[in-house]
Amino acid sequence: MVRRLRRIPRAQRNRINTLDIPTGRYYNTRLFFGDIMARRTKEEAERTRARILANALTLFAKKGYEHTTFTDIAARMKMTKGAVYWHFESKQTLLMALIDEMLENFRNQIVELLPEGESSFKGLSFPVVADMMVKHAVQTVGNSKMSAFFLLVHEQIRWSSTSMSQIREDLLKNSRFGPWEAFRVAVENGMRTGIVHGHVNAIEVASCCMALWNGLVRSRIAGFLQCDLENTLKNAYSSIWRSIAKGGG
Fold first, then answer.
1. One fold for both 24-89 and 90-248?
2. Hey, where are the domains in the chain?
3. For residue 152, what pLDDT is reported?
4. What is the largest CA-CA distance in the chain?
5. Assigned superfamily of 90-248
6. Are the CB atoms for 150 and 220 separated by under 8 Å?
7. pLDDT digits (tens, 9 = 90+) for 196-227
8. pLDDT at 123
9. For the structural domain made of 24-89, what CATH number should be given?
10. Residue 127: what pLDDT?
11. pLDDT at 37
12. Each residue of 9-48: b (16+ CB within 10 Å) or e?
């Protein structure tokens, strides 16, 4: 025997803070299913957002950032342009979401390398960051999504253009914890603990480490690197570490 759900009195209907079910009748099932539907809607929105980012990155890599429109993205996903705008108010906002996604993935990898019980980056050391960046380089050249993102940021976007001024300023003023920041913090940690010489400029070291990384990865992706990427980066970072560490590391 199926038990019929209790019908809610008219006086209580306005106090139910859930979506109306267009049946013409009001049942207490609305209270139960309201939260479930809200969670499903949120999960679906997150999945759609992730799909938009993935398809946008593919189009940026294929057509270039400047030549890709929301119409292109919507057509590729077989959805309306308005649906894309519902998730991202502009192409710059979408680009920043891609950048933040990649940096968040990097940050999570860094956190896993911290000493057990360490909640801040004060335990981060240069050798640990260097070793991770070597692995990150190998992953980048071997992963199509990571390679596409690298080429997008380093070759396809004209950062000096007027249209990119706002996002460029945001990146400069609101530092996000990425590879450059990891190197800088690691060097400063070494100086604070007395492992690294006090006269070392952490910003200069971090900049050199990233310039080296970007150059070698770009050459490898383009097919011009005539040496092993992993060993070359390992040797280069070891040389930098010996030059800044007391006692040669």
1. no
2. 24-89, 90-248
3. 87
4. 83
5. Tetracycline Repressor, domain 2 (1.10.357.10)
6. no
7. 999 999 999 999 999 999 999 999 999 999 99
8. 81
9. 1.10.10.60
10. 94
11. 53
12. eeeeeeeeeeeeeeeeebeeebeeeeeeeeeeeeeeeeeb
Closest Cα to residue 122, out of 133, 114, 130?
A: 114
With a cut of 50, list the residues of the chain below it in pLDDT.
1-3, 5, 8, 11, 13-33
Residues 6+ apart with CB under 8 A from 152: 57, 60, 61, 65, 98
Specify the pTM: 0.74
HEC sequence for the chain: CCCCCCECCHHHHCCCCCCCCCCCCCECHHHHHHHHHHHHHHHHHHHHHHHHHHHHHHHHHHHCCCCCCHHHHHHHHCCCHHHHHHHCCCHHHHHHHHHHHHHHHHHHHHHHHCCCCCCCHHHCCHHHHHHHHHHHHHHHHHCHHHHHHHHHHHHHCCCCCHHHHHHHHHHHHCCCCCHHHHHHHHHHHHHHHCCECCCCCHHHHHHHHHHHHHHHHHHHHHCCCCCCHHHHHHHHHHHHHHHHEHHHC
